[in-house]
Design goal:
This protein has helices spanning 2-12, 16-19, 27-30, 68-80, 142-158, 174-183, 199-205, 245-254, 314-317, 325-339, 348-359, 369-372, 381-384; strands spanning 117-118, 127-128, 163-167, 191-196, 213-217, 230-234, 267-273, 279-286, 289-297, 376-380. By secondary structure, the protein is an alpha/beta fold.
C-alpha cells in the first residue's frame, strides 16, 4: 500500500518544468526573444508570407530597440541603399541604370493597344508591329534554343557574321542573354541583337549590353544592318489575328540571309510555349517559306501528346478541329502514345520513342531518335498546313 501511495504522489507532484512561471509576453505575440532563457523559440504563425521563423533565439543576436525582426529589416534597408560600383549593371529583377523595372512587378496585365505602325523620330523607317504584354521568364525558351543550336549551328559556324535576332524579347532581357550563351557553344563568333517595340524595355535592357549582345528599338522591320542568319520570335504572334500571320512571315523571311551554294539561308523560328517552357511548338521557316513544325515537351509532365495543342502557334491553333491535318496528327499521336503504354515501365522517354516510331509510319517525321530523346518530334510543314 505504501508503494502505491508513493507512486500516486509521484504522478501528482508537479515537476520543475510544470512549476516554472512564464514571465512577460509569449514569443507568439511579441516577436522578441523571451527573457526566460536562451532556449526559448519564436512561435510559428503558420500563415503564408509571414516573417521567417528563427529556430533558436539564443543563436540570434539580441538587438536593442525592438528585437530581432526590426534589426533584420534595418539591415536589409541598409543593403538596398548601398551604392553600386560604377559601371556594373543592376542584376536582373532590379531596376536598371535607367531606373526602369526589369521585372513584371507593377506592370499592367495587358499593354494598351497601339497602331500597327509608328514613326520613329527624325523620319526614320516606321516601327511595324503592336506592343505585346512582354511576359517572359528565365530559361523559358531553352527547348527552342537547344533545337536551334543542334539544327542550325553549322550554318552559324560557317558564316562570316553569324547574326541572330531575338524579336520581341519582352519586359526583361533574359531570353536574349540566354540565346547568346547557347549559340556560342556551337558558333563562338555569334552575336545577338534583341529587338523590342516598347522603348522603355529597350532602355531597361541597355545596361546588359556587352560584346556580342545589343538591344534595339524596332519591330517586324528588323532595324539592323545586313541580313540575319537567325530570327527567333517566340510568343509574339499569339496576340495577333490569324489572318495577319502570313504577312508577318513574308516580311520576316524577306529579311533573312539568302540561300547560297553551301547554305540553305537564314532561319525564322516562330512559336509559342507555356510560362516556364515545359511545352513548346514552333514553325521553322527559310527564305522560301515554312519548312517544319516541331513539338517539344518535358516528358515527365506529359499526360498525352495532344496536351501540346494549347501551345500551337497562331497559324495552327485555330485549326485544331476535325477535318484539319493538325487535328488528325494529334489524334494519331495520342493513339500511338496509348499503344506504347507498356513502355512506360521503362520511363516516359522510352514510351515517347516508341510512339514516334509508330507515328512515322503515317506522318513525315523529319528528325532522328537523337532529337526524340529530348522530347521533340519534327514534322514537315506541308503535312500539317491548314486547308483552305
Amino acid at each position: 500500500m505504501r508503494v502505491r501511495a508513493g507512486l500516486r504522489d509521484a504522478v501528482r507532484r508537479p515537476g520543475p518544468s510544470q512549476t516554472r512561471r512564464r514571465r512577460g509576453p509569449t514569443p507568439a505575440t511579441s516577436g522578441a526573444p523571451s527573457p526566460t532563457g536562451g532556449g526559448a523559440r519564436l512561435a510559428e504563425t503558420g500563415a503564408l508570407g509571414t516573417t521567417p521563423v528563427v529556430a533558436d533565439a539564443a543563436a540570434a543576436p539580441v538587438v536593442a530597440g525592438g528585437g530581432i525582426v526590426p534589426a533584420l529589416r534595418r539591415r536589409a534597408a541598409h543593403r538596398s541603399h548601398r551604392p553600386r560600383r560604377p559601371g556594373r549593371p543592376a542584376p536582373l529583377g532590379r531596376p536598371g541604370a535607367c531606373g526602369a523595372p526589369l521585372t513584371l512587378v507593377g506592370m499592367t496585365a495587358r499593354a494598351a493597344p497601339l497602331p500597327h505602325s509608328r514613326h520613329r523620330p527624325s523620319g526614320r523607317t516606321p516601327v511595324v508591329g503592336t506592343v505585346t504584354r512582354g511576359t517572359t521568364n528565365p530559361n523559358r525558351l531553352r527547348r527552342m534554343d537547344r533545337w536551334i543550336a543542334a539544327t542550325h549551328g553549322a550554318e552559324l559556324r560557317r558564316a562570316e557574321d553569324p547574326l541572330a535576332i531575338d524579336l520581341g524579347y519582352g519586359a526583361a532581357p533574359w531570353t536574349a542573354v540566354e540565346l547568346l550563351g547557347r549559340l556560342r557553344t556551337v558558333a563562338p563568333h555569334a552575336r545577338v541583337v534583341g529587338i523590342e517595340i516598347e522603348p522603355e524595355r529597350v532602355a531597361a535592357a541597355r545596361p546588359y549590353e556587352r560584346d556580342g549582345l545589343a538591344f534595339r528599338h524596332g519591330g517586324f522591320e528588323i532595324p539592323v544592318a545586313g541580313r540575319p542568319l537567325l530570327v527567333r520570335a517566340a510568343n509574339v504572334l499569339r496576340q495577333y489575328d490569324e489572318d495577319q500571320v502570313a504577312a508577318v512571315w513574308e516580311r520576316l523571311c524577306a529579311r533573312l540571309a539568302p540561300a547560297g551554294a553551301r547554305s540553305r539561308g537564314g532561319l525564322l523560328v516562330e512559336g509559342t510555349c507555356d510560362e516556364i517552357g515545359r511545352r513548346h511548338v514552333w514553325v521553322a521557316l527559310g527564305p522560301e517559306g515554312p519548312r517544319t513544325v516541331t513539338f517539344a515537351t518535358r516528358l515527365g509532365s506529359l499526360e498525352r501528346p495532344s496536351d501540346l495543342a494549347e501551345r500551337l502557334p497562331k497559324a495552327l491553333i485555330h485549326r485544331n478541329v476535325p477535318g484539319e491535318p493538325v487535328h488528325a496528327f494529334l489524334r494519331d499521336f495520342d493513339r500511338a502514345w496509348a499503344a506504347a503504354a507498356p513502355y512506360a515501365s521503362y520511363g516516359a522517354r522510352q514510351r515517347w520513342l516508341r510512339a514516334v516510331r509508330d507515328l512515322r509510319a503515317d506522318w513525315p517525321v523529319s528528325d532522328s531518335p537523337a532529337r526524340w530523346r529530348q522530347g521533340e518530334v519534327t514534322v514537315a510543314w506541308g503535312a500539317l498546313a491548314p486547308r483552305g
